[in-house]
Amino acid sequence: MSFVEIVILGTVIGGVWALVASGFSLVFGVSRILNFAHGTYFALGAYFSLVFYTVFSTFLPPYLSLLISTFFAVILTGITGVLVYLLTVKPIRNYEVMVILVTLAVALFIKEILLMFFSDVSISIPPYISGCTYIFGIPITYSRVLALSIAIISIIALDVFTNKTKLGKEIIATSQDLEAAMLVGIDVEKIFVIVMFISSILAAIAGILYAQIYAVNPMTALRVLIYAFAIVILGGLGSVRGSILAAFIIGYMQVAVSTLLASEWAEIVAMVAIIVILIVRPKGLMGVE
Amino acid sequence: MKKEAIIIALLFLLLPTVVRGDILYMLGLAFIFVVYCVSWDIIAGYTGQTNLGHTVFIGIGAYTTALLNSTRIPHPNLPIFVTIIAGGFVAMLFGLFIGCVCLRLKEYYLALVTAILPLIFIQLTNIYSGIFGGYEGFSIPFSKALPGGVIGNYYISLIFCFSSIYLTYLLVNSRLGLKLKAIRDDEELAEAVGIDVVKYKLIAFCISAFFAGMAGALAVHYKLTVGVDYFGIPLMLEIILGVIAGGLGTLYGGAIGGFLIFTAKNWILIQISSYLSTILPFRVSDELILYAILIILVVRFPRGIIYELYTKLKLH
Q1: Total structural domains within chain A
Q2: ipTM passes above 0.90
Q3: What is the pTM of this model?
């Protein structure tokens, strides 16, 4: 596999990871919650989408049912994220270790539910478009090109939303100084819920895109978490832009390691890289206090 | 406190005369699990380091003794009690290493990194499956089992459990224990009064790892198999749940909580899940119920169930 191929495939997977990590980082930056259930929303997005697709495709044309199922799956995952936050995380938000424990328990709980209904097999979702194009003589499926485009559009939309709209500015204010934000009249509880909704939505979109290219199984919920951690540690906890940059670095690294060594090594290299970075810079590359 | 501990120990010593073999087998494993919990409490409860990778020590202890008793690597023929202690020491070396890596990390970063560590080991056992046997692991020969059958095993893990708790009790009530608590309560203040924070954090990591490694190694000779579940996230969650249920940083809390959680999971929950699976159209796993209970418990009693009940009783 050539260098160009690594760059192209790494960019696609980096785009997906950027969606995952930016949401994870946004939640931490605003509410200081380490959401171990974040990878679960990635898996849930894919599973909801598959369920809706099988239901809708019985009476709708496949293309339309794919779009509708994506829409419903993303919204439903967002609602799940908010419900998990309101029911389990919010009452104990001041106990840091408990938040980790409860979100990890939610992740394993939902994994068990997925295992119960779908058993331990991998699923894929039919891609939005088929066929492939040639970039520098390398065949790249349209679904990967579309996945990268959707990822980039979503990230730009997130950036515009947080920097240009009033609500987005309230989110930034909350992440900069919680008490000052409350003093100027920002309803931080509402902001926390909105941020949780956005982050779950981004994870769900990433999960759907990922399931169209590769495959998702119940264990993905935990495996995605490794990459999310690697990315946010590399980019610095709470820094959304740092996470997006780090996501592409991890994406390239993952593809390079998978092709040069074996795919099992990709996770190990990512994890060892995290530890090495933290020994050198204990707050990540662009971390916040 | 001492009087209660002796009464409980006597009760457990007499238990084999009245209780069935399969329950004794499960209780023996519960004692080993209690050591997992108590050793985690040394680092998390007494020293205040959120170590989510405690299963690394358990797994390393387990794999060390398992490999020293199999034909997978060349090794001298050692008695099993030597290899179990060797498991503890190898785990301690890793404790020292992980302690060194994590020294500079604070709160969230420490939690993230230690949460990742067991996953590295799980992947490595899979990659080098020729040695480590992949996800399923491998068995050790029957001749390497703990002596004395079910009752002998029960007594060995009982003695191991109570002596570990007693040593930990001596430790946390010594000057060393006081220094660890000082680090937990205020690291900068502890440093200001002349406590070598780096040294004592490393000591805490080593002691915690040593007990966990020994316990993991003992579990291998108890069950005669080793696999990646020794490293697993579910095991970590159960350990945390055990300690949290009893109360962090209290020692007896971790011991009681760990014992209750383990027996509840492996005795009561299995029966509930098999009952639910017969009346419902799908299989309900015992883990599912465990996680549901865990979520409810944590949300209702974020400071530990026994602790909150205790303070409530004290107030009235």
Answers
A1: 1
A2: no
A3: 0.86
